[in-house]
Design goal:
single chain, 178 residues, alpha/beta, Nucleotidyltransferase, domain 5, globular
Length: 178
């Protein structure tokens, strides 16, 4: 199963494609989509969507995992991040791929074992897990690979019948909303 991880943004979108093979996870491809800041904002968003569609068509992932929005220091930056993330969601839906979403803390915990790990710790663990000589560059690609690794680990637990611990929060929230 090929998993495409996406680290959303409005200037740089990281992507990373991995494939579990036995007890290992192999990096297939990774990189970054750069949207030039010299073009109007709406056109930049459109380019992001178009490039994500291109990556999906080229790499043919079985599933896509994306990082949920991180609420940073300002409302305007959170809003912009949400707009870039929205373009990624549209691209995934357009290509009819299953979509899985993880919080930054879930990704860090899955990769490092600590939901509050520093970015450099996550990048080093991505390098080690994937057996790479160097930390993937740019850091947005390393972040996207971390999201894909998170999904691989989650899928392994679900396949082993251990999904209950992961889904408990979602099912309680769902029941409260009814």
């Amino acid at each position: 199963m090929r998993i495409l991880g996406i680290d959303p943004g409005t200037r740089i979108v990281g992507y990373g494609l991995v494939e579990p093979q036995g007890n290992r996870i192999i990096a297939i491809a990774f990189g970054a989509i750069r949207a030039p800041t010299s073009v109007p904002y709406a056109e930049r968003l459109l380019r992001i969507r178009d490039e994500i569609v291109r990556v999906i068509r080229q790499e043919k992932p079985d599933a896509v995992a994306i990082e949920e929005a991180f609420y940073g220091k300002s409302a305007s930056s959170a809003l912009r991040m949400g707009e870039g993330r929205g373009m990624a969601l549209v691209a995934v839906a357009q290509e009819s791929r299953p979509l899985f979403q993880y919080t930054p803390a879930e990704v860090k915990k899955a990769v490092v074992g600590n939901g509050r790990a520093h970015k450099s710790q996550v990048q080093q663990m991505v390098r080690m897990i994937l057996g790479l000589r160097e930390v993937p560059e740019p850091e947005d690609a390393a972040d996207a690979l971390a999201v894909a690794i998170c999904h691989c680990n989650r899928a392994r637990f679900e396949g082993a019948g251990l999904a209950g611990s992961f889904n408990a929060k979602k099912s309680v929230i769902g029941k409260l909303g009814d």
